[in-house]
Design goal:
The protein is α/β, with parallel strands linked by helices and 97 residues long. Helix content is 37%, strand content 18%.
């Protein structure tokens, strides 16, 4: 089961802390996680948790790792990246939350 590919997306609904906790647990269990946050999702996440996901993806990923206290396991993609593997039907994730 650990080889499953999971896409986690924060969309702007309240409850960002639940999405972050899910990310943490998926990483700890060894899942391949792709993460994205819409503009609204990033704003709500910052408001509710203090985690800033805006700006450069690599820097946002480092802030995410520090916040979750994990150091690997997440591939972060920009919500407008239509060329990322998760956006392709031929490389779709096994599940999306």
């Amino acid at each position: 089961m650990e080889n499953k590919k999971i896409l986690v997306a924060l969309t702007g609904a309240s409850g960002a802390m639940y999405g972050l906790r899910l990310l943490e647990q998926l990483c700890l269990k060894g899942f391949h996680v792709t993460f994205t946050a819409s503009c609204s999702g990033s704003m709500v996440c910052c408001e509710e948790t203090g985690l800033d996901l805006s700006g450069d993806i690599d820097k946002a990923l480092q802030r995410l790792y520090a916040h979750l206290e994990v150091n690997s396991g997440i591939r972060m993609v920009h919500p407008d990246d239509l060329f990322c593997a998760s956006a392709s039907g031929s490389s779709a994730p096994d599940a999306m939350v």
